[in-house]
UniProtKB/TrEMBL annotation, chains A, B:
Annotated region described as Disordered, given as residue ranges: 20-48
GO cellular component terms attached to this protein's record: mitochondrial matrix; peroxisomal matrix
GO molecular function: malonyl-CoA decarboxylase activity
GO biological process, alphabetically ordered: acetyl-CoA biosynthetic process; fatty acid biosynthetic process; malonyl-CoA catabolic process
Pfam families linked: MCD, MCD_N
Name of this chain's protein: Malonyl-CoA decarboxylase C-terminal domain-containing protein
Residue span, Malonyl-CoA decarboxylase C-terminal domain: 205-487
PANTHER family in the cross-refs: MALONYL-COA DECARBOXYLASE, MITOCHONDRIAL, PTHR28641
Malonyl-CoA decarboxylase N-terminal domain residues: 138-200
Gene3D superfamilies: Malonyl-CoA decarboxylase, catalytic domain, Malonyl-CoA decarboxylase, oligemerization domain
Lineage, opening ranks: Eukaryota, Viridiplantae, Streptophyta, Embryophyta, Tracheophyta
Length: 488, 488
């Protein structure tokens, strides 16, 4: 290959454009090939396929331990991936409802337990060891009785080569279904499977791997495909992300070879970057030995089916330990992170508050303005004034909040190209962003998903940066603001 | 190093002679070093050490999630390994008893459950989804309430670097204590920890590694130290075990690097070996390409704390798959295995039956001999006759069984050097050995531990081999008989 063609190849677009909601088969899809053969009863085929997979699922759950189960599990996995969305849904509901736990057995054990409790009360301390022994026995049995039958399928798949990958695909499908309909039995199954996956993917079982340009193309391809924060456009871009001044680390699991479950990208810098542009350079700004800061600028998960299982926390912890050991001159560990939920939260706040303000203005005297319990002073008086002083040519709106709302939703983020608008918006947006990150909670968790992730990991909010990400996406989700979380 | 010194080094004895019942510290024992310093209150030191470790254990269990827990876990681990046996025992009992589950909470949930059951009976099918939702919720809560508090310590240690190794050492100590005293709470803790370890060490999380002479000495040293079946005497012996005509495979876990949890040794042969001597050659008898049989001649576990967790089954399965792929000319997979419990079982059988026979002979007429329900004809009439025909110089005894007993327990296994005795004993010993392997069960499991292992794995008894292991140990445990289990 000549230099020219290589350059073209390196620049070719690599991100796949898949938007199907079905999890992909990790296995060669032999069933799919079979479906191409002419058949006299094509109309019944989906139903027959469904029944076949349901039968192999049943065998996989109920087969005796010593029987050879590998064929059955392969059958089930291949069959499952050949099913259409509707049949996968049916199958998962069968699994959730018909392979639930044995409630009669649970009740039986509960009665035994209450019986022992009664004995204990009567014996009042005598024979304590005997009573305790009964407790231990029944509690153990109760633990087992509370395991749904479908655990058998999960356990066996997990032990089966390729099975862990099948389970994550299964869960990805379950999450798709639950996003559309709330089915109690399926939600219970999902919560059970999630806990199981969390146990199997315990950080101790994961191998930290530094991803470099020397890794197999099949692995690097995954990095390009799954980079969720700052898309990698081509191989040349990827090569830079893995080159001098940068690091990339992934967690590999023995059962899912050649595919990191999660990976993190690190830039070695003089200081904590305040904009994403400082990080996405083509040539390293300083020699690595002068770096004092390791900046995490992207963390991406590759398995939709592992949603809610926090692998990132341990990945960050281990990367920090590793970098500290290998580069003692680096003492600062921080992120430059997006704030994905800020504008969505702000717009809804502005909309509701500007409506409340309007109602108040009409129905009440200004002295009584604070009367409404839900009314909030989102803008400071001088900010309100600056916005209302703007000419109607720029923006319409009966109050500052409505005007802010209109500016932020203007076409192509025009406000971000106007120096006067930027100077008016900067202070209120930064203040409201700080409030959003620090104070807005839902069930005790930070409302912003990325903030919640880092704060739960023990990081702190270090700095909020104005115009840190001027990309379309950055302006859209957080008015271009980014945040540094610091890890100690 | 000259050739001579190298030869000496390679032949030096390597097996350690440790017989302490304490699990070893996997960490540098800093506390031990501290203990060497002069101190004014040496008498109270063990008590203070105990209290310190108990406190760090308490912190490790009860600390808030986001707090930095690594220091506490390191503290606990180091502290634990610095404790004497008695204090470890005290600590483990504190853990088992004071960090058990919350029975009040379990009772509360049980009452809720019974309440929902009542509702369900009343509603008779209406509102089914609502009732189901309640079941799912309470069952989930019940599952969590049934987790003892000490699970927190286990979970956190498992996620902590080096923690899995600490947990296996902890369990090794627990097993030592339970071997001496049966404590219900500690047994419950052990059964819980065993199940946890089994989940974390799921075969999917283990990496199959072919152990070769190119592996680090620190890993090879472990093979020498832990080979349980046919001791490796020195490095030269080890080099042969890893050389041409042989294979060695181990299961590695990411959290216990450089130390296989279990390993298996394989010899590549023309036919299934009938004696262990055919396997322990110095030079390969055939070129590898002529082999048609992979013979598993040794499988050893390195972690006493993983007793009862069947990693071997999956190791054998994966090795078979691997060998089949790499060497398609190999189609037979079998073991040559010891029968560790045979002679112990046989001697007790012979003793009880010869006593029963004696009593019968005195009290009853010979026609009524079959009257005793426990009486068994262990020997065939011609075997009985051959034994009774032996001169009293050779062996004493009032009946064949007593004579057999006396022969088998004779000093230095003299019977094994006498051609006439060998020919008399061969038939009854082989027949009784077959019976022992195939028919003697305890709770549905084969009485012999090795037989139980292979039969549970799905293997079959292929052949019983006379004088297959003439070593002191072989004669002692199974009268020199070995067995081939065949894997399909």
């Amino acid at each position: 290959m000549n230099k020219r063609s290589l350059a073209v190849l390196l620049r070719a677009r690599m991100r796949p454009n898949n938007s199907t909601k079905l999890a992909f088969s990790p296995l060669p899809n032999r069933s799919g090939a079979r479906a191409m053969q002419p058949s006299s009863d094509n109309a019944n085929k989906p139903q027959k396929d469904f029944e076949h997979v349901r039968d192999s699922m049943h065998s996989a759950i109920s087969m005796n331990k010593t029987e050879v189960i590998d064929t059955v599990l392969n059958d089930f996995s291949e069959g499952y991936f050949s099913l259409c969305y509707e049949n996968r849904r049916r199958l998962l509901l069968v699994l959730a409802k018909e392979y639930d736990l044995n409630r009669t057995q649970v009740c039986e054990l509960i009665k035994q337990y209450l019986g022992v409790l009664g004995e204990e009360a009567q014996s009042a301390g005598h024979e304590e060891d005997g009573v305790l022994g009964s407790f231990y026995r029944i509690e153990r049995n109760l633990r087992h009785a509370l395991k749904p039958m479908y655990e058998g399928l999960f356990e066996r798949l997990n032990m089966h080569p390729g099975g862990l990958k099948v389970l994550t695909s299964l869960r990805a499908d379950i999450l798709s279904i639950l996003a559309e309909e709330n089915i109690a039995s399926l939600r219970a199954l999902d919560s059970y499977l999630k806990e199981k996956l969390g146990t199997w993917l315990s950080p101790a079982a994961l191998e930290l791997h530094q991803i470099t340009w020397d890794d197999p193309a099949s692995l690097l391809e995954k990095i390009v495909a799954y980079e969720a924060v700052h898309p990698i456009s081509n191989l040349l871009d990827l090569k830079r992300r893995l080159g001098v001044g940068r690091r990339c680390f992934g967690y590999l699991h023995a059962a899912i070879p050649g595919e990191p479950l999660i990976f993190i990208e690190v830039a070695l810098l003089k200081n904590v970057a305040q904009t994403i542009q400082e990080v996405l350079w083509d040539d390293p700004p300083i020699p690595e030995c002068e770096a004092t800061c390791a900046l995490f600028y992207s963390i991406s998960s590759t398995q939709r089916g592992l949603a809610g299982i926090n692998l990132g926390k341990f990945l960050i912890k281990r990367v920090i330990t590793l970098v500290k050991r290998d580069m003692p001159h680096i003492s600062t560990f921080a992120t430059i992170s997006p704030i994905p939920g800020f504008i969505q939260w702000l717009l809804s706040k502005l909309a509701s508050q500007s409506k409340l303000a309007e109602v108040n203005d009409i129905s009440q005297s200004s002295a009584d303005r604070s009367g409404s319990a839900f009314r909030e002073n989102i803008l400071e008086p001088e900010e309100e004034k600056a916005l209302m002083d703007l000419s109607e040519e720029f923006v319409a709106g009966k109050n500052g909040m409505e005007r802010m709302l209109n500016l932020l939703t203007s076409k192509n983020h025009e406000w971000s190209n106007s120096a006067p608008l930027l100077s008016i918006l900067k202070t209120p947006l930064l203040r409201l962003c700080a409030r959003y990150l620090l104070q807005e909670k839902k069930r005790g968790k930070a409302l912003d998903s990325v903030a919640n992730f880092h704060l739960q990991n023990g990081a702190m909010i270090e700095r909020i940066n104005w115009m840190a990400d001027r990309s379309e996406n950055g302006l859209h989700q957080s008015a271009g603001i980014m945040v540094n979380y610091a890890y100690r």
